Amino acid sequence: MAIRERLSGNEAVAYAIKQINPDVMPAFPITPSTEIPQYVANYIANGEIDTEFIHVESEHSAMSAAIGACAAGARTVTATSSCGMALMWEELYVAASDRLPVVLALVNRALTGPININADHSDSMGARDAGWIQIYAESNQEVYDNFLQAYPIAEHKDVHLPVMICQDGFITSHGVENIMLVEDDKAKAFVGEYCPEHYLLNAKEPMAVGPYAVSNYYMETKRAQRQAMLNAKRVILDVAKKYEEMTGRKYGFFEEYRMEDAEYAVVIIGSAAGTCKAAVDHIRETTGKKVGLVKIRVFRPFPEEELAKVLKNLKAAAVLDRSEMFSATSGPLGAEVRAALYSAKAEIELVNYFYGLGGRDITVGDFEKIFDNLEEIAQTHEIRDMYAYIGLREGDCHGNSL
Amino acid sequence: METAYNFKEVMSRPERLAPGHRMCAGCGGAVTVRNVLRALNPEDKAVVGNATGCLEVSTFMYPYTAYQDSYIHNAFENAGATLSGVETAYRVLKKKGKLTDDYKFITFGGDGGTYDIGFQSLSGAMERGHDMVYVCYDNGAYMNTGTQRSSATPQFADTTTTPAGKVSDGKVQIRKDLAAIMAEHHIPYVAQTTFTNNFKDLHTKAKKAIYTPGAAFLNVMSPCPRGWGYDPSDLMTICRLAVDTCYWPLFEIIDGKWVLSYEPKNKLPIEEFLRMQKRFKHLFKPGKENLIAQFQAEVDRRWDELKKKCE
Known about the structure:
With 402 residues, chain A is α/β, with parallel strands linked by helices. Helices cover 42% and strands 18% of the residues of chain A. The model of chain A has no long low-confidence stretch (mean pLDDT 97). By secondary structure, chain B is an alpha/beta fold. Chain B is built from twelve helices and ten strands. In chain B, a hairpin with a 2-residue loop joins strand 5 (164-165) and strand 6.
């Protein structure tokens, strides 16, 4: 029998780590992910797992040590948020190009400038080109389930890529929810033993990691990474299928919520999907309007074709980004979705909104307004503001116009 | 552990840094690596780490590696953290019964990657007490990028970012004393050495560093013919002069106890060391005698300080 519990998202990740009992965890404290290494340190202190914790002096060293440990042949985990991930930046690329299946529990938090500790996706979205698989969660249940699926994806022989398991800071990381946990023995069996093919501590086969690759070789390494990312699409679905067989909980690249007959949809990542679902239900119940939601779970690799198939026959869709990229045209998810629809030769109306930066709330009412806007756009074929912020006080911080 | 140094035996050990790498003739860095790795018992396995720098780009250019042992390069500033991850993996895999072989862990960084950009990562790794040796091959500047000043560059050195000019005498500041800073980490073994006396001092200290349990730090003066401006054949002479002028004293700190390894019978004036190097050429122009005197005063001050610590 599965275990019924009430846990915060951070506890849920820590519990998954306890069940996996990874070999090495280098980590450095940063809000709101700090609890994860704290819980793990407690498991270690009480002899519940035999993971070795490395008390590194920075996140740069956390990822550096993770790379060393993983290259040496150890199953490795770390956790961070925001500026912590920014400090790891250089190392994220190294982990991916060294093809090391490190798993990073990322608790999404806005990047500093100004400093802010609340949820947005600027940290992971900024790292979207680093070569990591990125999987996002709406709820505590999802982040737990995603975490148990991380190593089977990362360590698969056709993948060998690091994986980032993302959840929204405070909203799910600190919010306590009901959760179903997999029994320890089943969780362990699902994740399996880590048996790397090549590693530094293999006495039979010394190896060298991290070469200087001149222009004759560099491009082929990138092409190999791309192939791994392409292969990851199949593996992510295979692992999800096995997970569903074990738990009954179904996962894919994204979740379609009331999309069967939908004419209007929101595309979103993370915890705000829950708020959007409430709006979808309310609109359908009160007006009968055919509205739905697509919640992206896997952002890297990006499920371009699959997503376009779901969106291409809508009258209009709104893509909601929880991070800026200052291209002055769209956000990271908006740009990907628009590209997907272009590749599919779909001609639906598409609008991109920004919400929740630095932890600002988005409400059911906000989503209702977004669906109203979509209806208007579909009728008029006119998008008044392609680049709007939801819930913004217009003007500068003092109310003066910009 | 202490056995008599047998030069012939040590030099006839199989090379762990294979020839054919791309380091310059007369480069101290390659000599440091060869001789530190020679201090491993031939039957012992090792993982070698490396910060980005001349050594890395010259010894592991894909698809060739010069290392007989497993080797990892990660980036410029994190040789300490990276090898600490490898060493931790080793301990946990041993604990879990997944590994039976014995390994030693040695990482190399230049002074840029050690004194400067990798300083925090080094400090963290030493403070945590990983069973590893961090070897700084100190050539006193960022040589891989073309001789830019580091905090290990001696005062008055002409580098590409502290050029001697009409109104400049080269680097303004004095060197950071990294060996002393490492000693303040209270790790079991710290030593400073270079190439003298048939490599006896380097060999002995490398062996102690490798076989002392816990974190160890070796600072090895490793001259650079291009950055210092000397003839490659003068490498060993330069090292001997650095030691005999007391510019680069040989010492070790064993469990907090400072021990002087060598005291020259006849301490030579610093000019002997400076004159062989183009980077100090401007100090020998008429009217610059005071700069040499200033350099000498700093060498004397540090030498006296060291002798007191070693009393």
